[in-house]
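Dear U.,

For the methods section draft, I wanted the exact inputs and outputs in one place so we can describe them consistently. I've listed the two proteins in the order they'll appear in the manuscript figures. Please don't edit the token lines directly; just add comments below if something needs changing.

First protein:
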Amino acid sequence: MTAVNAMLAIIVLSLLAYALLAGADFGGGFWDLVAGWSGKRERDPEGQRALIAASLGPVWEANHVWLIFVIVSVFSAFPTAFGTIATSLELPLGFALVGIVLRGAAYVYRAYGEGAALPDRWWGRIFAGASVLTPFMFGVSGAALATGSLGPHSTPTEPFRSAFALTAGVLAVVVTAFLAAVYLCHNAAQSPATTHLVPVFRRKAIGAAVASGAVVVAMLPFLYRDAPIVAARFSDRSIPFAAVSAVCGIASLLVLWRERYVLARATAALAVATVLGGWAAAQFPDLLVSTGGIDAYSAVRSAAAPQSVEAMLIAMCLGMAVVLPSFYLLLKIFSRPAVDEH
């Protein structure tokens, strides 16, 4: 494996970690937003929000380390592509950044502000709304890279003109909600104070899984219309990924129905991981598909000098050697969030 391909592998693995970990956090914000929307039939919406907050509390900020890995890797190893991507996606990435900042500020004010500046319920709404905005914008950004419509002369609104990109944004929101609901089923089962919420989140997880499948089916025609180059590669390379994702999605429904929540976490994570893997396989070797199919932003053409890529690869591997054990320890220590009786 070349140094360029090894760096691409690190970028994809970092994206995967961000999708599975931070994605579940964003999905928790979605369920925080809609808790209680079913009216009297919705069981204990405040209890749901308390469980979500307790689950996010220890790790919500740490998960962004994977996004930092992605940004630093692309900026350092593929500067030409990074410059065009950053300017072409200035609106969706800017909105995603605003969502991350607002989400963090609102979370802290709601948890520790005791009504400072705004009532806690308003900070809760800002937190939840930002948790939906950010994955939507990331989904739009990732899909826009495949359309071939971005470049130095594209307009800031170009990413939002593709039905494929907009549908991908919806898919990102639904998938993160699915992950969060599955994870929360397990967390709710850990304490007698929250076991009554298990069937609530199981229902939400099953509904989100079905919705994810429906959005994927709706997105496929747009993929072939708006991103023909990547669509052709998808047909050649990514069908096995799609098949594994579909099987794991169905398996998630079955194990959720049988109340096997640890196994459901694994199948849900694998279903999402293979979706991302299929996208990466179809996008390769282009970081940004250029207009007309010219490979100006392929990994090889846009890579920095070989010495720089190799040095960056060593630095990233050393960083992973420190971050991975630390992150594992963090998750292990706080794997059972405490929720007060209410």
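Second protein (the one for the lower panel):
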Amino acid sequence: MLECVVNISEGCDQHLLSTLASATGDDLLDVHSDPHHHRSVFTTIGENAVRALSTKAIETLDLGAHSGVHPRLGVVDVVPFVPLGGLTMREALDARDRFGTWIADAHAVPVFFYGPDPAKDRQLPDIRRHAWKSLTPDRGPSAPHPTAGAVCVGARSTLIAYNVWLDALLDDDDAALLRQQVRTDGIRVLTLEIDGRTQVSMNLVAPRRVGPDIAYARVEDAATQMSARVVRAELVGLVEEEVLRRIPESEWKRLDLAQDRTIESRVAGIRR
């Protein structure tokens, strides 16, 4: 099975989000929206839903009118294909290439590709840093679409998007130190200011090895050194069953985890 975790630059308008979700038909597993990030994560399966969702987003959204704390390049901002079950990474890469060619041809949206191997492939943070500077698109026009911007299309293994909120706003020096202490080869981290507090926004890129419990503990330890306290955690999207089962059930509520928020549970639900 092929999973696609589509990041759309809209997180506020519930009517519009409902319209976007409807475009995915029966292939939608989850939607997570954040008005502060002004961003939504649509977890879908297959290749048809992401094309329909992208078309609707390009028709209805305008990046020029967008504001939010999360960095973005386009209205259809990030489109990663993730092989699950018996699928291979080669099949995910083929789906990446098909989608990138399609959105460039059908909608004239520039495409930046990224891949699964940090040692050999361009990574998403590289695109965010260098797009339109030293990095030109892999498909499509050489300049951003006037309303849709550009899209980052990749193939990767499963990851977990995970936010931890502090009770205080760290200054720039402390925020930089916290990022340094939390970051590992399994955790990518940003710090964002939201409502006068610091949010630690993470991608757990090796979740079977570095899961939400470890990430939460690393943030908690670092924040304590700065006289700050963790007040809550937030899972963005879904986790694999295997990751959840590695964590004691007594910790699930504190970490914002639950059985019905696994990929396997949602897939079973749409197949009934």
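Candidate sentences for the figure legend, describing the second protein: The beta strands are 2-8, 28-34, 39-45, 76-83, 111-114, 151-155, 160-166, 187-194, 197-204, 230-236. The CA atoms of residues 46 and 261 lie 19 Å apart.

Thanks,
Y.
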